Fold this protein.
Amino acid sequence: MPKLTEDQQKQRRARILDAAEACFAANGFHRTTMQDICKSAGISAGALYIYFDSKEGLIEGLSGRDRAEIIEKFAALEESADFFEGLQTVMRTTLVEQPPHKARLFMEMGAEGSRNPAIGKILADCDATIRASLAHVLQRAKDEGRISPALPVARVAEIMAVIADGVFWRRAAVPGFDLAAAAPDLLALMAGLVGLNETPASPGKEGTK
């Protein structure tokens, strides 16, 4: 069998994570088997175990992927010419535009993390890294005079994380929750929280879709 190139290995790893994400969201952590993930990804068990040795390893892979994507968005916010517009983009791409199964996966992982110390540590480490990255962005914006939060930036980052967590849980637990309708008010709340010194455009619904 020919050896996979680096790009092919990355694609296979991503396909496995996509399959695990879909299976965990649909069936839950415990009801999903490694065989289910193999079938969904269209690979053999041997191929799966080259990349991930357990379901906990898959959770770590999923958390790491999400963490990298969010930190990349924070980096774009840091360099944004319009901080309010950048904040709106982050909220739209990380919350509003996320598919429904992402919210179910978030709930499933959080519930398992409360019972499984290994997963709990994975999620806690991921959360700490994301909050530290956001705090760094907020501190730079504060130093540049773009925002003037009343609270320490680390505290602001924690509160914003709590809001984001609440949005995911509500999307998963409340049928019919209209996040697009709530998004302008959530954005205004976050703008007030960071003490935005730039003059924001009106956060109408068209800016959140």
